[in-house]
Amino acid sequence: MILQNVKQLWIKTKNSMKKIMNNFVCILITSAILLGCEKDGKSLSTVNGFKIKTYTIDNCEYIGDVRGNDGDYLAHKGNCKFCAERNRKKCQ
Fold it and tell me: Which residues, 6 or more positions from 71, have their beta carbon under 8 angstroms from its beta carbon?
């Protein structure tokens, strides 16, 4: 009788631990997906009185304006620091 009770308690504890571990793994994976990705950066600078937004996308710099409508525009910066670094590494 006591052995049966211990066995049942062990099975319940084992099942509870499985549920806890499954939940933990799900939370860990979700966190890695949501927080692990590098976010594209945006900075604002002023040139000759004009405010210019600089976006960093996939390790390249772009200037322009993105508001989510038909007037969006981006252009690759001619002096992109990431491209300059890549070109310097290729030439070495």
Answer: 65
